Design the sequence.
């Protein structure tokens, strides 16, 4: 008898870019529908992560931007098949997740 149950895997990331990579892995590598993947700030503030990244990072001219919403971590969560939980947790860790949990 096969186990058709699912578990919610949640990970926290420092940057929006890392969260977006996590979403791509869930959708492309594990076939999870993007509508079933949730991305949100960990706290109440709008945030693009805890540190500048991508367009928020200093430019070639080395001018530091101060208009980015660096208010906290970004959480990615999705229900995944129980037999894929360990693989998803490993991928999140490889991407640089600060904290990964499954429940």
Sequence:
């Amino acid at each position: 008898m096969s186990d058709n149950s699912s578990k919610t895997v949640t990970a926290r990331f420092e940057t929006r870019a890392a969260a977006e990579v996590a979403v791509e892995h869930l959708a492309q590598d594990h076939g999870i529908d993007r509508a079933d993947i949730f991305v949100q700030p960990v706290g109440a503030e709008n945030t693009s992560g805890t540190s500048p990244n991508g367009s928020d990072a200093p430019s070639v001219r080395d001018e530091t931007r101060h208009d980015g919403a660096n208010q906290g971590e970004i959480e990615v969560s999705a229900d995944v098949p129980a037999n894929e939980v360990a693989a998803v947790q490993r991928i999140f860790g490889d991407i640089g997740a600060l904290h990964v949990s499954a429940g």
